[in-house]
TrEMBL record, chain A:
Keywords: ATP-binding, Nucleotide-binding, Transport. SUPFAM superfamilies: MOP-like, P-loop containing nucleoside triphosphate hydrolases. It comes from the Bacteria. Residues 15-245 form the ABC transporter domain. This is Spermidine/putrescine ABC transporter ATP-binding protein. The lineage of its organism: Bacteria, Pseudomonadati, Pseudomonadota, Gammaproteobacteria, Pseudomonadales. One of its GO terms (molecular function) is ATP hydrolysis activity. SMART domains: AAA. GO terms for cellular component: ATP-binding cassette (ABC) transporter complex. InterPro entries: AAA+_ATPase (IPR003593), ABC_SmlMolc_Importer (IPR050093), ABC_transporter-like_ATP-bd (IPR003439), ABC_transporter-like_CS (IPR017871), Mo/tungstate-bd_C_term_dom (IPR008995), P-loop_NTPase (IPR027417), Transp-assoc_OB_typ2 (IPR013611). GO terms for biological process: putrescine transport.
From TrEMBL, chain B:
This is Spermidine/putrescine ABC transporter permease. It comes from the Bacteria. GO terms for biological process: transmembrane transport. GO terms for cellular component: plasma membrane. It comes from Pseudomonas matsuisoli. Gene3D superfamilies: MetI-like. It is found in: Cell inner membrane; Cell membrane.
Amino acid sequence: MNAVVRENQPSSVLVSLRNLNKHYGDFTAVDNISLEIRDGEFLTFLGSSGSGKSTTLSMLAGFETPSSGEILVSGSSLINVPPHKRDIGMVFQRYSLFPHLNVRDNIEFPLTLRKMTTAERQKRVDAMLKLVQLEAFAHRRPAQLSGGQQQRVAIARALVYEPRILLMDEPLGALDKKLREDLQDELRHLHRRLGITIVYVTHDQEEAMRLSQRIAIFSHGQIVGLGSGYDLYQSPPNAFVASFLGNSNFLRVKSVANASASFEGQSLTTVPVGGLTAGQDVLLMLRPEKIRALSVEAAQQTALPSGWNEISAKVREIVFLGESLTCNVVTPGGTELTVKSLGSGLQNVQPGADVRVRWAAADACLYDQWNDADLSKGAGAH
Amino acid sequence: MLLSANAMGPRLRFGLFTVNAVIAAFLLLPILFIVLLSFGSSQWLVFPPPGWTFKWYEQFFSNAQWMQSAFVSLKVALLTTVFATVLGLPTAFALVRGKFPGRDLLYALFTLPMIVPLVIIAVATYALFLKFGYTGTLTAFVISHVIVALPFTIISIINSLKLFDQSIEDAAVICGASRWQAILKVTFPAIRPGLVAGGLFAFLVSWDEVVLSIMMASPGLQTLPVKMWTTLRQDLTPVIAVASTLLIALSILIMLVAALLRRRAELKG
């Protein structure tokens, strides 16, 4: 195995999905997806169940045939290549080890099919057992292993024949939280050491953030957001992604001019957005940690920096979450906001107190189009 | 459990015990009775036997007709087992994995022989074989037995196929095995307990089948149950008790093997 770190190298495209569709009768599972997967990257398909992420992975593996569209790997089509000839590795949610074979034979299975010499097989299986730290368990049956150990065997079995691409379909979904986090770390290190291209499917956004270089967010069979976890979180391309990923506050404002808007009769400064007409409804999104709440006295003493906005609000409740303090406030117009940055004088604030809420215009995202159903936390959140 | 043995009063527990004992006796006494009679010295199947003897066993094993019918029974049962399993396997696969209209209807059709009265199947197959001149042949025996044994193999294989996680087979495919290789190397070993259990059931169905066999039999070719039935109509010799005992012994043996296999499969899974 080479141990080249390829994480930050600009890399070429390995897989191209072009206008991929999958229909089951009237139901559209995958709706015209186009995506380029780079050589050596860790890409995660993130979405709630039924969003099309698993169907897309299945088409990549070859278990499902696209209704239309093209899948290219290094420029050549995979559509007519049966799954066993695609040279792809896959790890399934329920481990899917061969129950009648021991750990060593499970890992050796793909090599036996490839008619390798005994010496070569032995060498590779030994290397894999070492990689996943299961040397001591080589002769156990899958039923004699814990869930985490079984999944490590499944990973070893998928890597032993050095496939170009490793697909992982919610591989850690059946494990408990602590073990899941350990395996996430292992997986990230493994990816760095081997430089293999990994396409990972999950509905757990924290897992997606922790593991991936890029995330593709699926909703209703389409990719509605694509980018690094950081970019998708800091500047979501649309209101759905903003609502789906992390926590968010939405303010319904009206555009006044190029860089100003009004919210409940108050004037706000915004970043300049082209193409807006005066009086148009605009959605303003703020992350809770970007909003600062101050007591009325503190707000009077501290001048508002330029490019910032201030509105008044009343405290509704305060929730202590260990590493952070979350404060729910409500504006006179009835808009609820979650605030995670509390200014001085608010350590002992009580529900019902008047506060001032401030944010920098540059930290807000503006959307001129959105679907109200996307704003509720239920839209795909788990 | 809502109604556990400990939660019941001693009276209720004793009552249940008695009812169960009576039912068990009702089911088992005739078997015990026939086994004891096969060792009894009386020629007239007197109970309790005045003395004990092996002479009816000697008569059974030295009689060419009895031995031949036992041999025919064994041959028919083995052939039925093979055909019912070989035909049941692809049928079960199609019924579990297939996505085609009318699948549930087909399943109902395949299990119909379990519900339809045997006499009807017997008359129907008899009429058919008569037309083609197959009555009294081994072929007729095996075909008619396969009809009634098939539901047992199909249901048994379907159950183990449904329990089998298909992603294990998919894993073999993505590892580089063709679908056929994956089924042979991974799916078959996993569903083997169901396959074996289905085969054993098929054997048992054929082994003690009498209604169809009477229709299919000829003077030259008859199974053990048919031979017993025809002998019974002529005289009441204790050799019949011997034949019954042997039928029961083999059935119990097969059921034990099935139970043992199931236990082993459970321990493994």
